[in-house]
Amino acid sequence: MAYEVEAPKYVRLAQTIQSRIEDGTYPPGTRVPSENQLVQAFGMSRPTVVRALELLKRDGWLESRQGYGTIVRGRPAVVEQKDRRGSEVLARDESQTPGRLVEVGSVPVPPRVASVLGLPKRAKVLMRRFLVEEDGEPVELVSSYFPAGLVEGTELESADLLSGGTRAHLEVRKKVRFDHVTERVSARLPEPGEAELLNLPDGVPVLSVLIIACDASGQARQVSDVLLPADRQELEDTYRLG
């Protein structure tokens, strides 16, 4: 069973401040409200506010200037990273990817997807499930979910392989402009059907990478759940210490 874990308060506050930077409420070059003002405005404790501000500074949205306070820098410069899984999923050309389309159809929205898309629990969404293979062996199971209102006028419901990737397809057919992606990584035991598709022995967990693709307003337009056999994965990150 998969459990939905709500993001910590300081992360949710950081996301709210980030959204206000993006929509121009806090323009680049201006000061953000003081810690006291943020405590009062959001009803959160000072430690929570401090952690949220530190997170935004670390990620390049804010900076501290001595004698002037905390300044808005704006959206950080994008650094090209070819191994971003979300970008890969959005751009994946099914017709050119080794593997097979295992399921296409309307399904009840999974709980963690419903919370991201803002849908009620019993809502239906379109799912495209693709099994990626290497040398004939399954390596990745990708289940992509689309709100019903986004599907009309597209080929997402087709059982034929989609050319060019979902991002390009939706930009052309629905004029959707994807702006950013959030990835959430968790671990769980696979459901029986998932284990069978990935050819996993009993008891082997999977890494679930939930990819949330949003437009500039922050609205999620596509959510993909990428399952990876945990016994074949290694996560590594290199970063500078401040």
TrEMBL record:
InterPro entries associated with the record: Bact_HTH_transcr_reg, Chorismate_lyase_/UTRA_dom_sf, Tscrpt_reg_HTH_GntR, UTRA, WH-like_DNA-bd_sf, WH_DNA-bd_sf
Keyword Transport: no
One of the protein's GO biological processes: negative regulation of DNA-templated transcription
GO molecular function terms noted in the UniProt entry: DNA binding; DNA-binding transcription factor activity
Signal peptide: none
Entry-linked SUPFAM superfamilies: Chorismate lyase-like, Winged helix' DNA-binding domain
Protein keywords: DNA-binding, Transcription, Transcription regulation
UniProt domain HTH gntR-type: residue ranges: 7-75
Database matches in Gene3D superfamilies: Chorismate lyase-like, Winged helix-like DNA-binding domain superfamily/Winged helix DNA-binding domain
Protein's UniProt name: GntR family transcriptional regulator
Organism name: Streptomyces phaeofaciens
